[in-house]
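Posting for a labmate who doesn't have an account.
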Amino acid sequence: MSKTLVAYFSASGTTARVASELASAIGADRYEIEPKTPYTAADLNWNDRTSRSSVEMNDEHCRPEIATAVDDMDAYDTVFVGFPVWWYVEPRIIDTFLESYDFTGKTIVPFATSGGSGLGKAPQRMQQIAASSTVVAGKLLNGRPNAAALRAWVESL
């Protein structure tokens, strides 16, 4: 039997809400990708070139540390990976997550929340990082998607 995980990073709670609704709608397990050092409001100020998020996103090799690990990643065949879009891609902590596990043979489904952009190059970047997996196109899940719409999207994959 196939097992599904909804893993997500949420800076402000928006992606957490969507991830919770998605996991509930499809009967998946849920895991929060929490940074070992939480982000402050100042860290998230994208208008400040010296803010933590700006510095991280300007460094392709930056890998923020994650607080906890997934209990049994081997148990999952499909992993939905949720995040807010930062600079038209996934935040660097998502790269940390992808590099922390063996995704060989797994399907990765990106989903994101954004104030004004789409997934950008995130799916392509994620495929490069988790090269032994299959990363599908994914979807932007803004607003309050209902359970039926979420199930329909997942079934269409």
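Reply:
Got it, the structure tokens are right above this. The two ends are 17 Å apart (CA to CA).
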